Amino acid sequence: MKEISTRHLPHHPARGEPAMNVFPLFRLMTLTAVLLAVAVGFPEVFGAEVVAASREYYVAPDGNDANEGSQAEPFASIPRAMAAVRELRLAENPVGPVTVFLRGGVYPLAEKLVFTPADSGTSDSPVTYRSHPGERAVLSGGRRLSGTWQRTPGKPYYELAVPEAHDSQWRFFSLYVNGESRIRARTPNWGQKVLRADGRAPGEDPRQAFRYFPGDIDPAWSHPTDIDVVLLQSWTPTLHRIEEIDAQRHVVRFHSTHGRTVDFWERNFRYYLSNVFEALDEPGEWYLNRHTGTLFYYPMPGEDPNESVFVAPVLKSEMIELAGDLPAGRFVEHVHFRDLDFRHVDADLDRYNGVYRQGHMFLTAAVVGRGLRAASFVGCTFAQLGEYALELADGCRDVRVERCHIRDIGAGAMQLGVTDLKTLLTPRLAANAGTDPADAPQPDGQGAAVQEVLDLVIDNNCIHRLGTIWHGCYGIVNRFASRTRITHNEIFDTHWDAIGLDARWNWQGEKYSHGNVVAYNHLHHLGLRYHTDAAGVYQFGPLDTHIHHNRVHDNVAYPYICGFAGIYLDQQSRGAVVENNLVYDVEWYAYFQHKGVDNVFRNNIGAFARDGLIRRGALSDTWRANHMEAYRNLYVTDDDIALRHGWVPGDRPPMLRRNMYHTLASDVELTFADKSFAQWQAEGQDEGSVVGDPGFRDPAGRDFSLSPDAPAVAAVGFQPFDPQIRTAGLYGPDAWRNVGRRYPRRQPTAVWTPADLARLAAFEMDFEDMPVGYQPDVFRLSTSGEGTFQVTDQAAYRGTKSYKCIDRKGLARSFHPVIQLTPRGLDQGPVTLSFAAMLHAETPAPLNVEFRGAGGTSETGPSLQFLADGRILAGGQEVLQAPPGTWTHVEIAFRLGDDAPATYTLNLRHDGATTQHVLPFRHDAFNQVRWLGFYASADVDGVFYLDDMKLSLEE
């Protein structure tokens, strides 16, 4: 005979509610008790099995953990409610659904909450933690600051003594004011052009030091070793705490775990500095002096610090962990969270100082699940969190995240799946696991290893203002997880990829990341010009992903490396189907496959993409398999670019067929990799494709709807999907569908213009401060075999060192070795190059020096040759005899611009005598400097030396 449990029948009046007449209720209770007694004693009389009743517990900020947890006498803390649920399960069997109601208010967490298998529910008896209806409970990992703010004398900011922060007792890296995160004092300020480095520091670790331009970093700043350098890179930036500033050499040193050099992407790479007291110069910025415990804050316009709510985080990284016991096969199951706020967790900048991984996936999240199953987060808010908001990691299954609002996050919104493939390929999780094959991952009841992540649903969530600290994060990233459904989410105001499927580097991971669906998402206003090589939907590795009915638009990129696409399949993508998507107004290709196999792009619309409809990436000797099909796609633009780039065929050519291209511009013809459409098709490309108007209703107004009888239907068989694409994004009541409109988007930051970048081409080197063997990063060295350039002390024009070129016979290229400079935007103003050169007396290697324009060797400007017989030629004309073993000082000067003459002045000083020549450029078309090179021009074993090298761009 089963026991039956009932909830307490007497009604406890809520605060402020009048008491009710209890006599009618007493008679009802008596009758109910009699009926229940009969039911318990004689269940067969009623013809049905007795079902356990639900239970409720209450928690309130003004409660008491000594209470019984009823509505009238609530608990004070969530841990006490968790204990009550565990006690209930031990005391009663069966137990019906259990709900823990949190009354409105803030619940400060002094330490992380940990849910274990003992906190689980069952399918018949789930456990739900939720806000009381009509109220909102906030789980906070922070502490509200108290005290009186005082105006700092002579400054626009205020200060507050925080005694607990004295001598770093409480060091926080985030500050939340009136429900919004604020920015640590930084330079340059957000929105301004960031700084540029002066390249590597000679003699230093090229991963952990760089030279700064005078004035960019001040060694006299307060507490310089509390300052973080943020290196922006191409996609994922890195944060580094300054260890030392060498004021004399203009060198800054720091720690880094990154395998790449600081200048991997650009010699004058980008960075900014955070946590600089002297940079506290803009509203919304703050600074904590961890030594004195003084907090400084520059108020926003109209903001009174003494009328504002300041919260500083106490917890770092995580506030809740749902920790299943995977080795024992025990999980946290049937636990649900509804209508709760998770807020105020810090980023751990000490722990992750100098750490790199794509997407910042070394980070954890405020709420972390491992071995979490049959659970959900519904209607919750995640905000003001320092790392990722939510992580569903090893062993999670059947977890739903629905109608959640995730905003103002230090990193990204969600990390899904196992981070590292080795976790799934190594022996089974167990304390005594060895190397025996029997220790391989063991399947559970569903035929999958317990670590595998399956069947996650991420639906109808609003996600925005991500990357406030860690800029290069994903909005949602699905790692090694299968059958994940990411649908109907709205994501905007991010630095990098909105949705990523990142199970990477080799094909082994396919078994653990397959069958995923990304559909009906609205991804817009992505990118803030810090990063590039990105997309609305980005994939790196999974098998057979289905990407459909996504609307992606208004993506912007850092403009000087690659771009920000709509949908992007990167390496090891296989069997993906990309169909029925709409992509427009993006700064790259609408669709892009870098490297992959057997992927299909069909029935998509692309429009107004900087580089056209689609591209497939390059091939190499080690990567010949790169195959895709793209058919029945439509593209419209307002310029002449249908496809900016072509591609080499590879083992199987990409199949472009039955696509339709159109331009709104009446005065241009579309180009396909700089070819006409007829030339493009003559190469075997785009069989059955056409150029013509597909019939969009108003493409200039961004209305891409098509009628069933639109020309595109008959021309290429396009299947309109307008009714479906209109449902992309959030669904539900209007208030929810429009929630994102309540929050202003950050605006893309300013970037260096081509004219700004041109100034960075200037350099001056005498090699005296460089170690022997060093290769300065001013130039990029291209070579093969034993040919090279390096600093030497064997010869010098002045001083003790110079730059030595060692040429060798039989190198792969006749011009190897070569050092080259590739400026951007150098098309205006004066240009002066000076250097000293000497061919080796016994083994001279001929030297060529050339300036080239956009057309390469067909647009050569000044050109100089030093021959082994001592002749110096300028544009083929002999201008001097300088025997090998003697130094010649050279100065080449010219102007660029519309009215500049196509000539240059050559000054040569040799053996005490100076000669001057005014000579024409080799080609009249030369009008900008895109390449400056010094190279060995003969197939010989020989040497030459360079010294006192200087490029000036000033009068």
What are the main properties of this structure?
955 residues; mainly beta; 15-stranded parallel beta sheet; 9 helices; disordered N terminus
List the helices and strands and how they pair.
Blueprint: H1 22-41, H2 43-46, E1 55-59, H3 78-91, E2 98-102, E3 105-108, E4 113-115, E5 127-131, E6 137-140, E7 142-144, E8 150-151, E9 158-161, E10 176-177, E11 180-181, E12 183-184, E13 186-187, E14 195-196, E15 209-211, E16 228-231, E17 238-246, E18 251-254, E19 270-274, E20 285-289, E21 294-297, E22 310-313, E23 320-323, E24 332-333, E25 335-338, E26 340-345, E27 365-370, E28 372-378, E29 381-385, E30 388-392, E31 397-402, E32 405-409, E33 414-416, H4 421-425, E34 457-459, E35 462-464, E36 476-478, E37 485-487, E38 490-494, E39 499-502, E40 517-519, E41 522-526, E42 534-540, E43 546-548, E44 551-555, E45 564-569, E46 573-574, E47 577-579, E48 582-586, E49 591-593, E50 596-597, E51 599-602, E52 605-607, E53 614-616, E54 628-631, E55 634-637, E56 641-643, E57 655-657, E58 660-663, E59 671-672, H5 677-682, E60 690-691, H6 711-716, H7 722-725, H8 734-737, H9 754-759, E61 763-765, E62 780-782, E63 788-792, E64 802-807, E65 818-821, E66 829-839, E67 847-853, E68 856-866, E69 871-874, E70 877-881, E71 888-896, ...
Parallel strand pairs: 1-2, 2-5, 3-6, 4-23, 5-25, 6-26, 12-20, 23-27, 24-28, 25-28, 26-29, 27-30, 28-31, 29-32, 30-33, 31-34, 32-35, 33-36, 34-37, 35-38, 36-39, 37-40, 38-41, 39-42, 40-43, 41-44, 42-45, 43-47, 44-48, 45-49, 46-50, 47-51, 48-52, 49-53, 51-54, 52-55, 54-57, 55-58, 56-59, 58-60
Antiparallel strand pairs: 7-22, 8-9, 9-21, 10-11, 10-22, 13-19, 14-19, 15-18, 16-17, 16-19, 17-18, 20-21, 61-75, 62-65, 63-64, 64-75, 65-74, 66-71, 66-75, 67-68, 67-74, 68-69, 69-70, 71-72, 72-73
